[in-house]
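PT: before anyone asks, these are the final sequences, not the draft ones from last week. 1446 residues across everything. Please model them as a single complex and drop the result in this thread when it's through.
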Amino acid sequence: MLNLRSGVTIAVGAMLSLLPGLSARAFSPDWAKPYLRLPTPTGAYIAKDDDWVALYREIDISCTQKGMLVTTFRLVLTPTAKGPTALALAMDYDSETEMLEAPDVWEPGILGYKQLSLRKASLDFPEVSSEMITSGRFHYVTTEKINPGKKAIVTWRVQERFPFPAEDIIWPFGTYPTADLVIRSDSTEGRGVHIVLVTPDGHGGSRTESGQVHLENLPALQHVYHPGIPWLRSPYQALPFVLATPRDKAGRSWADIASQADQLFNVSSKEAGAEALKEKAAALTSDKTDDASRIGALVHFVASLEYRDIQWGRGAYTPETPEETLRSLSGDCKAKALLLKVLLRDAGYSSNLVLCRSGGHYLSPHFSIPMATPFNHVVLAVKLPSGKKEPGTLTTGPGRGWVLVDPTDPQATFGIQPSGLEGASALWLASKGGDFFHIHTVKPAQSYVDALLSFTFDTAVKASFTLTMKGDGSLLEEIATNREVDGLETGLRRRCERYFQRAVPGIEVNSAVYRRGMRTAPRLELEGSIADPLQDIGGPSFTCSAPFAILGRALDVPASGYEITGDSTSPPPANPLSCSLQPDFQAVGIERSGAITFVLPDGWSVQSWPALQRKLDSPWLTLTIKSGNPWTILVSSPRGAFKGATEKTRLADLNRMASLFRQSCLIHESEPESPKRAISPPAER
Amino acid sequence: MKGKAHKLSILSASLFAVLAVSLFALPSGRDSFPPLPPVEQRSAQNPEESKAGVVILSQSLHISGFARIGAFRTKGSITQEIRSRYIVLDSKGARAVSRHIFLGGPGSTIKEVTGRTVTPDGKIYTLDPKRDVKNLDIRTAGGKTSRAMRAAFFPHVVTGSILDLSYTVVDRTLPNFEIVPLQGTFPIRHLKVYVKGQILKKAAWVPFFLGPAPSGARASLDNHFNLTLDLDDVPPTRDEPLAPPAIRAGYRLGLMPMRVTSFRHPFGDGDTVKYARLFGRPSRVLQLASVGSSRSKGLAGAIKPSAGTAVLDDLGLQVPPEWIAGQDAKPVMAWWNDVLGGIDKQLEEFFRHTATAGDADDLSSVAPTSLPLEERVTRLYRYARKRVHPDPGADDQRSLNALMASGHGDERDVDLYLVYLLRTAGIPARMVLAFNRYSPVYQPALESFRPFSTSYFVKASPPGSPPIYLMPGDPFATVNTFPQAFLGALAFVQPDDPRKPWSISRITPDLQQKGLTRVSFVAALAGNDKSRRLRMNTTLTDDAAYVFRWELGWDRPKTLAIKEKGHVRTIRQGEKSISDRWKKVYDAWMESWANIKPQGDLPKVNARLNVDKPLVFAMQGDWNPEIRRIGNRLLVPAFPRADIFVNPFQSDRRYDPIWWRNPGDYEITMTWYLPPGSSVEELPPPAHAQGPGGLSFAAAFSPKPLDGKGTQAEVLCTMRIHFPAMLPASAYPQVKSFYESLQRLSDTHFLVDLANTGAQE
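LR: through. Structure below.
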């Protein structure tokens, strides 16, 4: 409303706006000349919804005297759409460890190159969700609309700012398909770079080529890989990539990388306030009498600390000091593992840091070349003086016989195998003797959920139940993450009630107790009731679905069934290089076991139990039911690659399994003279 | 993946996550913090605080702005200083505030971020700006900050901790219309807002509430428009299912820049009416205490929500502000009366030169007076749409003759034509301009239609009969259509005498919704659980058809993106053509009714065609119902799993009224064809339930003989449901119980005896 502007200001602004155009001509992208006359390419690798195609893409990688990698991207693009189209470019970078030189875009014309103004269409913003804050940022630019037949020339640059991991992974796929890609090391300045192409062979291995990499006819990334689809392997197994390292770091062994990473933790641990940590360790273990309990108390304390967002403080690779973690009562995986290591040391126990790759489909890639980038998590292996084997004791790697602990997991319990790490790629950190291995423990359990339900028909219109749950179910994880304390809590009861209500109308949870011991897995005990548990289907028969719906929710089976997440509608690309879609791969393994015990009034009997007409016994999903009272179910879906499996077949099987928990049992009332309960809606009662 | 593809959806999702952070996402403090509160204040004082796990004990907000006109440029800035004190009530609350708290605002600079955690044992952990505050600024080209954002991480948060936070946001732009949200994520025990009113030599921010006024608010306003506003026990924003939008019911302070003739005596009789809007409806007798000396006279007093310029009732509907017709309201209503009066003049101009628009003689054959009134109205409605096709993309016409010549008209032109026809036929009719109740409440102080979603209606109001609302200009409306978004809505009604101002009233919320949604499923039973084909026939009439036609959209590119009446939505992202959209609509329709995807060709229904007839289409898909074989019997579910049966309510209590998005009547039938020779062993008894406001369902199950000789060849399961448009929050227990019964009943089964079919177990 008070938008008063001076005409003079506008005039000066208009003059200033001419300056970028003048200065741009001094930096004309002459390197692009050979590609400007190329015709618009065609081919199966260009999808219908690709608005642009890169005629030529060049990625130059150099290394500064200080050993930092510098990656320069150069592209010549042409629109494929029939009408004028804007060019949109998005680049992500880590503001802690990388520096982005924003892109320049030119449009070649008769009189030379016209630099396009990106001032009004440039945005640089943080990668933020409500749960996580990292130092990741997006840089997003769009141009004005460009006519068909024209070309656009783009360059930008990314420079490392941190000497670790001293390598870079370059994915050959971009926002737009590429006709011709060259990735090469630029050794004109600095130390020189070694590059190598790593391609998957379809069996988890890879082959490598060194020297300049030249690839053709590459589809856009969104057509070869969907990170949101849980069926896919890790991109490190599924996609070809180029590994770049400073020449003097080329040929590093796993031990070399382990040693370099170990140094980062040593620096932080030396900064620690020794006395405060010793006091804390002593306070936490003073009333414990045996080693396992003492270690358990320390693990319990560190696991209970708030997870602080990755890269919040010290950067992506340097952990916070244990002192700082104690001050803030929070930390990321690096900080928590380091604090636990120091507390254990002060309490007289040995432990060792283990880098690993966590998270669903990222588990267990096999790397033919030692590299650090794929690791995204740190856990700890603890040496138990007695040497006693616990379920979480490692059976592989340099730490065979040590107990693996993941202090980032709020449910971590010493001795119990960490959740979701079985089979993960790992690197044992040490100044000497570090090595790569795959994590396997004494009890090689994958994720699991157990639930026991006792269901009692108090009257024809009301039933009561008790439910005990343990394992990796989402409700238990949510409670652990929210640090619900032991004992009865109104908030906990409501939280549980809401969790079941959508699948089980009329359910009331009267009490909820969450128990978590130092040495026992967390468990949740619920007691509650259900109004109108029976459906009158005529004659002396009823159906009852509530117990099975409760058990399904307890076992983490979605009430409405499973869906493929992400966009799986694009067909697999024809290009052999991008043999990325591996629908035979099941990333998440989980074992579910449940049982329902019915307590029925006299004269009632269950005539039929939920069942599948056809057996469900595929390599990726086996289901075993024992009908009767108790009714038990065991569902095993292991992780791995299964020949003949597709997203469709596995989704269908998962949904068949889910359908069991929507079924009812058929109850027969053998005393017809007893008053039969009618369906009586609330208003009529 | 560096320098690589990233879907725009990821970008936009992240961006929205950042932008969605409100000013009140969390609180503030400064180098010196107030003394710690007494112990009795450190526990939850009400259920709302217990539920949240965190309470903001106190929050203060200082807002000041200035503008300076110079020789070469005009400078200005807005500064907000925010200080908050939280109390962590339980472990859930500890988690809610310990991870990170977003700080930010519309400004480009955040400075002076200070804070601390005081643990229950009295230890103090100061917020370390280097370690605990992260810069998340959004930048434009050249690294210039366009929106300042910080995330603060309180150290050492445990249950019982007190957190203090203070920061300042500076926006280097000219003071403009400002919106100050007064609610946030957590309940606030005490909120104090200070606004420095004067922003220019002769301009000030005039405060008012954009929506309803909070209860218990107290305010003072001095002669320089410096505002002090105090609120106690401010509830947090809520996200309840089927609730009116927060933009309507939330507490928000508006600051309107206005020219002030004098700062010496701004609250003289006339100016009180003009400037004291915060205190309620304009009145010369505000019954407020005058404060200060005679030279610096100000106002102070408690604010009565019931006397606010915008008041909501227990249905979330805006109470018609009758005061706007009064003399005192003239300064406030001047802009509105000018605009609405302009419409009258336009209408007058429009009706001139009507040689080809039809006269009374013509109309006597179209709608003879011998017919019942409703039939006459219906005929004239159809006649109008036949002569002038409703077309949202049509250009405005200057006169009726031009409109007739064109044969196409936009919403208002066709409405006007019908008004003309009705009046010519002797039926009183007028234009109505209604405010969509899903948009912000009508607030006269805003002096603009832009914040609101409005729609024209024709109101035929013959003497002695209830009024009939018509939408002839809407291409998808039938004569019976009335979009539910306008039930209970406020509306300006055209006066009989153009010299009088338009009156404002409320369209009755009880206006009968005449649409029916009929979904009929058919499937054949086989003796195993192999996938079977489910056929689904849909018939939609009137309001139900209207909604679905708008879902399908208008198939001409020029008008595809127009605002959709009653749904306040434009074409969705990612749709390049009308067929893209149709596929999504049909897929979603079948998924919502049967939880399966349609297969085969999708219906080819053009939403623009045969609008007066029911919308009918058929779809089918592979279905895996949970049918179980029990010896020689089959246990068969009565209905497919439809979203409409699922209880959306889980919480114990409800604060907002319940607004159904698609009220009206539903009829869902499932016909099962039985295998030859089979028979129905048992069928569930019929059931029904009724709730408040006409909420009801009734289910029936009946065998249907094939040939009249007693062979049962079909089972027909029928469910009829009626949802009212809205109910108050007080009806929540009954509504929740109703839904629980409905969901249970929808899961019912029946038994089929296969003994005589020859099927082996």
